[in-house]
Amino acid sequence: MKNNQLRQSSHFTIINLASRLFLPRNNPGITTVDLGHMGGSNHPKKLHVPPNLEHDQNRRPGFKSVHDVTKIAGLPQWHITIFFNFGIESAASMIMSSTTAATTVPAGLINIVNLGAIADGKTDSTLPFQSAWASACSSSKPVTIYVPSGRFFIRSAYFQGERCSNKAINFRIDGTLLAPTDYGKSSSDVWIKFEKATGVSISGGTLDGRGTGLWACKASSSSCPTGAATLGFYNSTDIVISGLSSINSQKFHIVMDGCQNVKLQGITISAPGNSPNTDGIHIEFSTGVTVLNSRIATGDDCVSIGPGSSNLWIQNITCGPGHGVSIGSLGWTAQEAGVQNVTLKTATFKSTQNGVRIKTWARESNGFVKGVVFEDLTMVQVQNPVIIDQNYCPGVHDCPHQLSGVTISDVLYEDIRGTSATDVGVKLDCSKEHPCSGIKIEDVNLSYDNRPAQVSCTNALGTTGGGAAAVIHHTTSSSCLM
């Protein structure tokens, strides 16, 4: 068939479906076109048509129009379902693999507008973004995917790095990316997701999770979806994110899970203090993560550190509103990877629920926390400036009421000053079965209502020095750091 075409231009793969399907000329036309990304590879070309059309090679195209399925830019594979109306509804489904190379990358720069993205805040630009990714991955040279000023709506984006040969892809964002507001229809727990990516960087721009509708649902009902994290990297390496703003996430703002060698700098995160479960930066099962020069205001932990995290460096951040910087919660499962070598240095906490916190569930676990440094911190009206809570349970129901199996050791609190919003500035509530050990408090000076804040210790072993001696005098427990 001479009109069968799968042709390319510099930016678009144009699929002419009119001559691929055989329909009577009196066919009323296409009633619905559903176009979705399949992923994977090696799917054979396959065409299913109603039995009365299956072997009739004399049928001629009877489409009213095919323009709605043109300009599909360079994606590796598509599932195209076309429903026809023959008086009764029947269907045709085609699964086809692209047989042509990815689009050419001109001069190492891909502008998503040239791939069909529209900055009107309404038109779904998911396909242009994924087309840009496919093109960048096919290049042997560094590529910048450029997002100009404007508001671009993206329903959901998934960037698979396992088959991406390019290890130097930069997203330069001058505009704002908008998440969908119909949170109940999302099938993904991450809005913009990278998996098994290497050498990806993101610079600038704003990600707007538009989570207010979901927050309202959670405030008024218990039967709400959990929502989606805004940006997530999974099992990825050599990641750099700089100058990025994330606002109003449905759930976590930024997630690093199973990653190595990550740098986040100049990050701005913003959500109301009452927005539920909107952790700013969440790290778990990752090593070599650095967070620098960032401002985080949200409704949950500014930075949360989960199991399997090691060699983390967090410096020069401000937190508030929020729940502080937390290691945990840990110990929910009996077999759990530990957390070690974590440093938080030069940070300011403003009107937060906690300052620096280690939290574990009161149940059996082989988890651990060791080698932690909290240094050069300023507290401004913080409810719990320094806290270890090994009886963590955020609700009143389903609390385990056991003894925490997580061991906590070698934690240094040094040069911490400011004001507590409660009379207890340091609370160390450790496990009776596994007391905290190697706790060091050096030069900790916290006040409450113009007098020294108290220290409360349970099953905590360690030493004090510097200004902390004056604070320890007001302890509520004789077992404090014995």
Entry summary:
Strand 34 (about 435-450) and strand 35 form a beta hairpin.
Can you characterise this structure?
This protein has 482 residues and is mainly beta. It has three domains: 93 residues, no CATH class; 199 residues, Single-stranded right-handed beta-helix, Pectin lyase-like (Pectate Lyase C-like), CATH 2.160.20.10; 164 residues, Single-stranded right-handed beta-helix, Pectin lyase-like (Pectate Lyase C-like). It is built from three helices and 37 strands. It has a 20-stranded mixed sheet that branches. Strands 11-14-17-20-23-25-27-29-31-33-36 form an eleven-stranded parallel sheet. The protein has a four-stranded antiparallel sheet with strand order 3-5-6-4, with no helix packed on it. β5 and β6 form a beta hairpin. The chain is elongated and about 65 Å long. The N terminus is likely disordered. GO terms for molecular function: polygalacturonase activity. Pfam families: Glyco_hydro_28 (PF00295).
List the helices and strands and how they pair.
Blueprint: E1 5-8, E2 13-16, E3 30-37, E4 46-48, E5 77-85, E6 89-97, E7 109-111, E8 120-124, H1 126-137, E9 143-147, E10 151-153, E11 157-160, E12 169-173, E13 176-178, E14 190-195, E15 200-203, E16 206-208, H2 212-220, E17 229-234, E18 237-242, E19 245-247, E20 254-257, E21 260-265, E22 268-270, E23 281-284, E24 287-297, E25 303-305, E26 310-319, E27 325-330, E28 339-350, E29 354-361, E30 368-382, E31 384-392, E32 407-420, E33 424-429, E34 436-448, E35 451-452, E36 454-458, E37 460-465, H3 468-472
